[in-house]
């Protein structure tokens, strides 16, 4: 749990912020200009060369018999998806990253741990919250990029742990804390994974509602520096100091 000396208290609560983790059909998000080729122009040999370079770049090695070929077929499908997407004029591009040998089902099972059962949602029986809805006459900007306003920390990696619920929660709290105080501080997902167990289940999934409630009841949350992320379920350590 967070101790008064090193926790970050929050005195302003602006309702609940709900984040849903959505995945594209293919787990490939980084863009590389070489990945914009017409899929019909790629030969099997060409794809295999790309695959071998990708294996080296990401330090991939498969021990099981036939696993490398199985992963190649998934990689090939993902690369085809990239090429088809990038062949159309869209506002964003796709590319190969370290997840390119995973199927959509495998990616979801490994990395998406949000537990969204409606019956377990806090306030599920309440009426729709209207305070944040657009009202006629509101003078709103066309867009807001909180990265440009300094309210978003650098990209984090949850690893092979279904803790996306903790990352969603922490990102929201980091952002609102920066907006209110002006200080951008990276906070601890691991504290939620280890200590928020009234409903949430660490690397086996959870819900942001309960994580927000945990932070409120706990009086704050530790910083990433004090309680660093390990991507595994550990015993809650209320006195942990790095």
Quick gist of this model?
Belongs to the peptidase C1 family. The protein is an all-alpha fold and 242 residues long.
Description:
The protein has a two-stranded antiparallel ribbon with strand order 1-2. The two termini are 14 Å apart. Among the domains are: 69 residues, Orthogonal Bundle (Helix Hairpins), CATH 1.10.287.2250; 98 residues, Cysteine proteinases (Cathepsin B, Chain A), CATH 3.90.70. It is globular. The chain has six helices and two strands, in the order βααααααβ. The protein is 32% helix and 2% strand. InterPro entries: Papain-like_cys_pep_sf, Pept_cys_AS, Peptidase_C1A, Peptidase_C1A_C, Peptidase_C1A_papain-like, Prot_inhib_I29.
Identify the strand order in the major beta sheet: 1-2
Question: Taking all residues together, what is the mean pLDDT?
Answer: 80
> What separation lies between the terminal Cα atoms?
14 Å
Number of helices: 6
Instruction: Give the proportion of residues in helices.
Output: 25-40%
Keywords: Disulfide bond, Glycoprotein, Hydrolase, Protease, Signal, Thiol protease
Domain Peptidase C1A papain C-terminal: 140-242
Family: Belongs to the peptidase C1 family.
Pfam family, one: Inhibitor_I29
